[in-house]
Amino acid sequence: MRSEEFALKMKNLPDSPGCYLMKCEGRIIYVGKAVNLKNRVRQYFQSSKNHTPKVQAMVEHVDDFDIVLVDSEMEALALELNLIKRYRPKYNILLKDDKHFPYIRVDLSQDFPRLELVRKQARDGARYFGPYKDATAVREVLDVARMVFPIRTCNRVIRPDHPQRPCVHHEIGQCLAPCAGLATREEYHAVLGRAMEFLSGKDGPVLAELKERMAEAAKALNYERAAVYRDRIRAVEDVMQRQKAISTHASDQDVIAVVPEEADAIIQMLYIRSGRLIGSEHYVLEGGGSELPGEAILQFILQYYDAENMPPQELILSAEPPERDVLEQLLTELHGRRTYIVTPMRGEKRKLVSMALKNARDEAEKRRKKLSRSRERTVGAAQELQRVLGLATYPRRIEGYDISNTQGALSVASMVVMIDGASARKEYRHFRIKTVVGANDFASMHEVITRRLSHGLREPEGKFGEMPDLILIDGGRGQLSAAQDAMHALGLSIPMFGLAKRIEEIVLPDREESLLLDRSSPALHMIQRLRDEAHRFAITHHRQLRGRHSVSSALSTVPGIGDKRRRALLTHFKSVEALRAASLEEIAAVPGMSRPAAENVWNFLHPGD
């Protein structure tokens, strides 16, 4: 129930532009912007019949809100972007795959610039070419550029008054050697200019020059040199062939298309530079499926084009974003250059949008199939298990238990959890067996089930508070019977079954005959994964304990360390790992320790150091 303070805040909302932050128990769950905060915020809490299911769910949880006033709609848009990035609210559209692609950078403020691979753009006056799909694609282009254009690749500091010895790249014709004073700034920049034309997608002049040189070399009967030019021509053509020419416009463009799914939205991008398609990528907008396509694209643009991803001259969109003019103004302000936004209905640009939409739909279909397969392995498998075992309710939470020890020593139990058929690692727990002496798996299983279920009864809000809908015991009838006795002693009735390893038979407490599932059954595969995970988790913890115990016991053999000092060390550092990580001074500072004894301990824990 909302407080009187909430109603007072609603009453005093201003007519100003700004951002609003919806809260639930002090946590920000949604951030929005408005030209008029009073009208926008009040709309949420009036009739809900026009709200989407997501907005209705958000409003039901809101118990407070804050506002931030700004001077303009553009400032509100910029602030909304920063607040979403900072808080990542549950009900906002969020860019899931926040990838940053590599670029080629040329710093023209230097006398002899290099071609560099960088991971982000910066407003530093340098020229950037890209983005490229990955670093491998960049290196392929750089290799060709360096083969054709003799531009330096080294990090040498070039000083005209201190010429250096040319490197091997100059000897093979792949560097002008400005470090040795063999090229002037003007000569170097002339070659660099042609290289930048090539990087911009203008391969025509480059190929014409190379073909002319090849012809001249062949005419002079210098066939070896002609072969070099031939190889360079092939390298350029190979790179440019992969960058398909799809636009008659010479400007840089990003094509952005959105395809909504049930919950999320798929964004497909095509990167066009100087009329050539140099790459494409898809993204997932979490929560974008319930929004209008234009709103989803708006949120994508705001989150994608940050300080490290500068927009090109033109964005070609499949849907018109709200406040397009304000968005253009904001992008221009943030990145220092004008960006135009268009939503074409026909012509060449519409064909580009259609290409992006086709790719987005293809990706959406792949995701649907993948989710369907995943559902079959998880929720579908749990539903099948419910049917096979004749359970009255769907087993949302399934817990698996296993025991591990070495000849009865250091016995431990594991509890692993599946929720809706998928591993829930945060719910996993270990137990040290306390009441059982020796190797007695039945008694150990009785103890661990008693402790786990007792915790749940005593502390319903604690870490064991959620009771299982179904329990899997790794073992046969003996282990299952022990677990059943422990549960019944607490007055509980939770479905249980065992899984015997020999022929993967399901053991049920009320059936004399075991149950065998088909080898291809998703339910069988799921409980095998649960059983194997319980075994792995128990074994891993047991080995860790055994390692700590052996080191702890061995400490008593260190000169100057008796039981009293050993206990003092382990009490102070809590674990052998922490003791091993401690410095000599920290060990010596433990009460009761002497410097020589501390040195002996440190040397014992660090043999060979």
From TrEMBL:
Domain UVR, chain residue ranges per copy: 204-239
Domain GIY-YIG: 15-93
Compartments where found: Cytoplasm
Residues in UvrC family homology region profile domain copies: 255-487
Keyword Cytoplasm: yes
Protein task: The UvrABC repair system catalyzes the recognition and processing of DNA lesions. UvrC both incises the 5' and 3' sides of the lesion. The N-terminal half is responsible for the 3' incision and the C-terminal half is responsible for the 5' incision.
Subunit field text: Interacts with UvrB in an incision complex.
PANTHER family xref list: UVRABC SYSTEM PROTEIN C (PTHR30562:SF1), UVRC/OXIDOREDUCTASE (PTHR30562)
Listed name of the protein: UvrABC system protein C
Species this chain originates from: Candidatus Pullichristensenella stercorigallinarum
Gene: uvrC
